[in-house]
Amino acid sequence: MTKQRKKPLPLYRNWLSRLVIFSGIMALILTAAACMTVFMLSDVIRKQFDGRRWAIPSAIYSDQTLLYPGSLLKKAPFENRMHQGHFSPAADRQFFRPGEWRDLGHTIEIYIPEYAFRGKKIAAVPIRLHIRQHRITTIERMDTGAPLPMVALPPVAMAQVFGKNRELRTLVSYQHLPPHLIHAFLAAEDHRFFDHPGIDPTGIARALFHNLKGSKHLHGGSTLTQQLAKNYFLTPERTLNRKLKEVFISLAIEWAYPKETILEIYLNEIYFGQMGAIAIHGIGEAARFYFQKSVSNLSVAESAMLAGLIKGPGQYAPHRYPDRCLKRRNQVLDAMKRFGYLTEADRAVAENSPLGVRPRMRHPRIAPYFIDTVLKQITALYTPETLNSMGFSIYTTLDPEVQAAAEAAVSHGLSRITTQLKKKHVTTVPEAALVVMNPRTGTLLAMVGGSDYAHTQFNRITHARRQPGSCFKPILAAAALDRFSPSTLLSNTPQTYTLADGSQWQPKNSHPIDAKQLSMRRMLADSINIAAVDLGMRIGLERVIETAEAMGLPPSMKPYPSLALGAFEVTPLEMATAYCSFAADGVRPAPLSILDICNASNAVLERRFIDMAQVLSPEKAFLVTSMLESVMTDGTGKSIRKLGVHLPVAGKTGTTSDYRDAWFIGYTPDLLALVWVGNDENAPIYHSGASAALPIWAELMRHIPNHLSGAAFSPPPGVIQRKTCCNTGEPAGWRPCRCRYDEWYLKTGDTGTYGTTDRLKDWMQEVFRTGREWIGD
Q: Are 178 and 297 members of one domain?
């Protein structure tokens, strides 16, 4: 029997089966490729995220702030200090938690939390300050009622070394996220987060549909994982290619991490808005910025507001659009109720609460020029990778109160000067810089390197090289005290000097002075140029250079007559350091900005010590200080009293040729501050040191009374005060002398030894002179 042959399949069925097989094979290949891609991406992503997630940024801290009975406490600066220290206003009168504070009028209560400081653990303590007329009268513990002689507020975290940029970040682990905060973000952004594999198929389909229709932009809701992939790895462009990358990266993230970890990373990375030039990233910083709270203390309503910002931080910014933000917050609360995260009663309570955001702080950055100075030092010790990840704590010398006052003084001073220049139709844009030091230790208490760090990061305190002008004259006087005294008469007669190249130079006074001779004290008080050059030439310019270099000025000075008038370049920090020698009994300290560097376990790795050198005798330093007091009482700085400063001050104004630089360096027994005003292009500012720099210095002093004891400068044992003849500039002794004044001298030196016999002679001469005047001679 003949077998019947099978009929061949129709052509279309043959090709269909082949197409199915081919498609299946291609699907397997693509699936395998996709899985391989996801697997490889997950390894890369794990390295990226683990490096950032587990890296503990190094933090730069200020010094502590001391509170004690008698110290001044004004409301606005104190509130700013509380904000800087991350203290939250207490929301409940019955429950008072560490890190909270409250102002009750005549008392202020602060719950100082436990904190680490310079290798030590400081225990938490609740304190109560009793205030009367803006001063602390007593301090007591709230738990025991025991009086306290002094308390220290924790240092301020000024900056963190995190990633490529200097940022402030507060990293929060999943365990410290309150449940209602998690629910708020899930309700607002991705309520199926714990159910899907990282992508939402419905959202992907919607995006593809819009793209195939030719839509210019893709639309569709992304999961939290997709948002994390987009924000961390991809550019903001909205194209099909970027969307596909987003899908693969999202799957890789889900492959690499559990859901809790993904949510933790997301909340520490997401963008919450802008604070001036600073972007607010992460739930920790968002809680601080908007509510001045830690994440664990956020309420349901506050959590819903933050979750609502993710959709559009600029569109719903609470400080700019409070009504819009409130509406968005309530939408999130409704979603939380709809998805079962809130009861109707809880939703109603939260919805009826006010927005509750705190006012935006005016200065988002704390001491940025000072931070740059610190970073330059620590990056010489540690690599960026180490600083980014090892959690070091760098404790510095900066005083937040002094820094805030310094920044305000510079801002107000420049505003005043700019207004005056505009009235004169002068287009010069002035700049200013200010540094505050403890003259005995060299610690930097405040540093303002310019008017606007966002505009320019050039630190004029440490890098601007400018001529000091008449501010150099006290150093000239210090060099002369081996041979001369403050009473020594100097020539004020115009004189022409022949320079080494054969050219001639003649110094001129800034204002007319009729006297042919005047004392060294008067030369400094009135800043007389002709007399200053005469002094420099008499003692020898090489001797002047030797003294200046010993006091810390750079070894670039040349022995030209103009040296006596400060015709060379120096940085403001070098000048401030040199003046510390006068305030600190002749001891020049090295500038100190870092105290300790501790590791994540609070063990001290580096400890900086005070470095100083004796460059003048205490007696010579006092004589210069005494002469600089005359500058402030009846010389170029006498306007200090009208500016509201009435304590003992020694200082010197300085103005360079054509009014290009205006200086004032002043000090008390407690601190020293230098102010420079000028133009970066070296254009004239048409102001002297007395009119531009001195008012800034005075405003600073008025706002930091807690740092000023008001004590007078104490003479050391090696100086003596003697009656001095005005016309000879020498101790009066037995010589007839119609004009006398009291002057300080070294006990040994060109004035000879001064003992009991000399005192008796001076007393008898004074009696004799008084008698002659009484009988009419």
A: yes
Give the residue from 483, 435, 425, 397 showing the smallest Cα distance to 664. Answer: 435
Nearest alpha carbon to residue 326 among 357, 347, 299, 348: 357
State how far the Cα of 329 lies from the Cα of 131, in Å rounded to an integer: 39
Q: Which residues contact 197 (CB under 8 A, 6 or more apart)?
A: 251, 254
| Sole residue written with tokens 């929301």 | 91
pLDDT tens figures, 434-449:
999 999 999 999 999 9
Query: Domain check: are 181 and 264 in the same one?
Result: yes
Dist. CA 285–CA 669, nearest whole Å: 41
Residues 242, 300, single domain; the answer is yes
401 domain residue, yes or no? no
Structural domain for 213, as ranges: 170-351
User: How many angstroms from the chain centroid is the CA of residue 592?
Assistant: 15
Is 744 contained in some domain?
yes
Are residues 177 and 297 part of one domain? Answer: yes
CA 78/CA 80 separation, integer angstroms: 5
Which CATH number belongs to the domain containing residue 99 in this structure?
3.30.2060.10
- E-assigned strands of 324-448? 393-396, 431-437, 444-448
Domain total in the chain? 3
Same domain membership, residue 288 and residue 142: no
Per the DSSP assignment, residues forming a β-bridge with 88 are 100
> In this predicted model, what pLDDT tens digit does every residue of 392-420 receive, in sequence order?
899 999 999 999 999 999 999 999 999 99
What tens digit of pLDDT does each residue of 132-180 get?
999 999 999 999 999 999 999 999 998 877 555 555 567 788 888 999 9
**Which residues are catalytic, by number?**
189, 470
The token pair that represents 635 in the structure block: 């010389």
Contact 62, 80 (CB under 8 A): no
Distance CA 553, CA 569 (A): 9
